[in-house]
# Entry
Amino acid sequence: MCGIVAYVGHRDAYPLIIKGLKRLEYRGYDSAGVALNTGDGLQVYKKKGKVSDLEASLTDENLKSNVGIGHTRWATHGEPSDRNSHPHYSHSGNLAIIHNGIIENYGAIKLNLQNKGYEFRSDTDSEVFVNFIEDIQKETYSSIEEAIRLAMQEVVGAYAIVVMSKEHPDQLIAARKGSPLVIGVGEQEYFFASDATPIIEYTNNVIYLDDFQIAVVRNGELTVKNIENIIQSPYIQHIEMELEAIEKGGYEHFMLKEIFEQPRSVKDCLRGRVNADEGHLVLGGLREYLDDIAKSQRIVIVACGTSWHAGLVAEYIFEELARIPVEVEYASEFRYRNPIIQEGDVVIAISQSGETMDTLAALELAKSKGAIILGICNVVGASIPRISHAGAYTHAGPEIGVASTKAFTAQVSVLTQMAIAVARRKGSLHEDTFRRFLFELERIPEKIEKVLKNAEKVEQISALFSNARNFIYLGRGLNFPVALEGALKLKEISYIHAEGYPAAEMKHGPIALIDEDMPVVFIATKDQSYEKIVSNIQEVKARKEGNCGSNGRRQANSNHGRPRH
Ligand code: M6R
# Structure
């Protein structure tokens, strides 16, 4: 994911932007760049590779500026290279842009500009965007701000942009549609970023720019307008994020830190909501909608990736406890078909960031069709909670690691609380069971702590399998989505191909893959399906010899490894 950092104020912009870009490194990127308005005019510096590579290449440059924009790029249009990195100059060199998102109709705009004599130095849609702005400015004799507003009416796609200009050296203009953009409000200074992590070191006061809004900082003043050119009064939110929450705190990786934070993050997710002694469960953000959910004929959950897996876990729990049918959909599929939403349907979006475009679009679609929409989100003030009728925050704290860990357990925790609250309201849960669930929920953090004490053992086991090329994860019931999540984590982090299946599905094909070279991970908790999963383990163990010839290599057999019943 690309990252944006920009600054205008009284500080030295370059070191601040570099530090901010480093804070965004967790998002992944392939190149980095900055633009500064130094005594030498508008200067763009960019490089394929790490932010530190960019830094190292600039040691001899004059980088003094109180205004600047910086970007980390994850290639979409055009390979990772110096020339495709951001910022991009406009044709005249008067403007420089950084852009997150994708301009879908850039091809047609580019052709039109090429016919007018514009030449392009990169393969990116972002360079097309900045030239489009410049062209509008020339054609309409308008200000940059007005040209951006007019361009926004023509471009199709998603974007968060920040533009600076040679002619107005102390000015920054930002705009968004579909990609997040946060403005940090300091004393006579403003920060722009794709999320709050590069900002909180300087100020906790932020504005989340809305879609189709344009923010201009000129002469030290911030003005926000909508696409109709009407001045807006943006809400300045005070975010509670602490600096230490976004630093590694002695851990080698953010992911490891976040795995070990789970006892605390689950506790934070329960805090103020669950009190077993008093038989108390309150999700404040859902209070007004609890009756509607309890009466609903159907719940649809939309999410992507790990959050989708949390949704699958919730499906089991909601159906079991609240007896309401649940459908779990990939947001990316839901948004592009014509889903049937009926009156009274409840659509729940699950998202750590609250900014995932597919999930946001799915939620907007459901809202337009009259559904009650609820957001389960980690980032306070993000787009999903802002467009939802109601919802609950997961309170897991910032998740910097790209691979979701503590966000998943917090999502499952909040969804479980929600299912219990709805079931109780519906009357489908006996009071004793309700109390027992609350008691068990409160025990979860200490149970996670116990599991984490096995870290060394886990490390030893993982060393044995570090050369494996494939993995299978198996589980039953709500451990099936946990198996999917395990497989996703392994793929994402180890680049080892992994698949998750319901354990009983093995015999319908995938068992053909199992031999002594295939590690199989079972999620085998002591629940009602424990005996069954143990027999699945036996089945897999039996494949050790069954599928191998005397030379130890797999034999092709006519039934593709399927057991003959
Ligand atoms: O922020 P979201 O939860 O909406 O993100 C959705 C997915 O991109 C995300 O869960 C992704 O699958 C995980 N980070 C993978 O570990």
